[in-house]
Amino acid sequence: MADKKTKNVRFVSPKGIASYPHLNKPDDFKGERAYKAKLVVDRDDAAKFIDLAEETLKAFIEDFNAAGPKKKINPKKALLNVPFEDHPEDDEKVILKFKQNAEINGDTVKLAYYDAKGKPVKKAPLIRGGSTVKIAGTLRPYDGLGGGITASIYAVQIIELSEGMGASDPGFGEEEGTFDANEAEPEGFSDETDDEFEGYEGNDEEDEFDEDGDGDF
Predict the structure, then answer these.
(1) What is the CATH number of the domain that holds 120?
(2) Position 215 in a domain
(3) What pLDDT was estimated at residue 182?
(4) Residue span of the structural domain in which 159 resides
(5) Which of 48, 69, 162, 204 could be a cystine partner for 2, CB 3.0 to 4.6 Å?
(6) Cα separation of 95 and 88, whole Å?
(7) Backbone angles phi, psi at 66, to 5 degrees
(8) Residue 150 forms part of a structural domain
(9) Quick one: which H or E segment has residue 76?
């Protein structure tokens, strides 16, 4: 196996409208239990996330191929396996895709939750489709199945709760978030009124590479 030098990269997504989220408990699809969410985001707001994902994957491919593997990664094909896609009905929006397996090496994964002010939530309310959220996670490039990159989840910031809407944008404006858990200040999410995208290299010991992109590390 080729030596992989590129580090996984942590991120905080731009805020977006959740589409069919499974963020309170894992979805169970064909025996695979995983937290999942898609966020509908304005294209301009998503630009830094998209650039970060593409740059991380390109650096990984360069390092992987330079190590002289028997089968090199085709950059053009790998760059099709990314955690974002165009919105099918709105050219001004994109869809960001996130997934986190519910178990890693036999250990149960639990997500962290924060309110709109960046305060931790002990018991998260039901996050329905149409809710406005941010997601913190890790971009993880992989070489299996032709190569690509996934966006895992380790925390969710709940900015606006919805009573339950589908995949369409419910029309939230740029209003200050109202969900407030009234807890102690965390070290994670900041107040959601600071919309600056954050991306930084993950150097934690648990940041391992997912060789086949299935979310199981």
Answers:
(1) 2.40.50.140
(2) no
(3) 62
(4) 9-201
(5) 69
(6) 9
(7) -70, -20
(8) yes
(9) helix 75-78
The residue to which tokens 């999942």 are assigned: 36
In the block, which residue shows the tokens 């997934």?
99
pLDDT band with cut points at 50, 70 and 90 for residue 189 = low
Q: Which two tokens stand for residue 98?
A: 């996130």
Q: CA-CA distance, 156 to 36, in Å (whole number)?
A: 11
The pair of structure tokens assigned to 173 is 């404006």
CA distance 53 to 65: 18
pTM of the model: 0.76
200 pLDDT above the threshold of 90: no
Q: What is the pLDDT of residues 64-114, one digit of tens each?
A: 999 989 899 999 999 999 999 999 999 999 999 999 999 999 899 999 999
- Could you write out the DSSP letters of every residue in 12-64? EPPPEEEEEEEEEEEEEETTEEEEEEEEEEEHHHHHHHHHHHHHHHHHHHHHH
Amino acid at site 28: D
Q: Contact at 8 Å (CB) between 114 and 157?
A: yes
Domain count across the chain: 1
Residues 115 and 179 sit within 8 Å (Cβ to Cβ)? yes
Q: Is the dihedral of CA 76, 64, 203, 205 positive or negative?
A: positive
Residue 1 domain flag: no
Quick one: average pLDDT of 117-146? Answer: 96
Q: Return the structure tokens found at 181.
A: 């858990």
End-to-end CA distance of the chain, in Å? 16
Give the Cα separation of 163 and 73 in Å (integer): 44
Q: In this structure, is residue 159 part of a structural domain?
A: yes
